[in-house]
Design brief:
4 helices, alpha+beta, 30% helix
Amino acid sequence: MSPAFGKCFDPAGARWGIPTYPWRYAPDDGLATRRQLRARGLRPGGQPIAAQVMRVNRRTGEVRVAYLYRVDRAKPVRPMTSRKWGALALAMLARRTCPRCELDVGYCIPRSRGICGACIATEEQTTA
């Protein structure tokens, strides 16, 4: 057994306080991550963390953790209200609007440049 595997295997919870399993070795008996719950249309709903899955990067020693929740205690996802849909639409419009030409370009503007592709092209032409 590798040291990284041994550090992550604690099904009794003596070392970390909650049951801990290595990456891809968690039991499938009613435990799921937040993403897995969301894919089923569920949310944790305020329940405590039931277990965790841990992974150690062998090069850097960095530890990554994914928390597991009980599926039987999960609650259904709250439906989106009309106000939430409106707020989401406005936020996406702001991400698609170029601050230089002030046009809705139809795609999310990359944060690295902060302007649309047409403005980038005209900027490169003027500097060349």
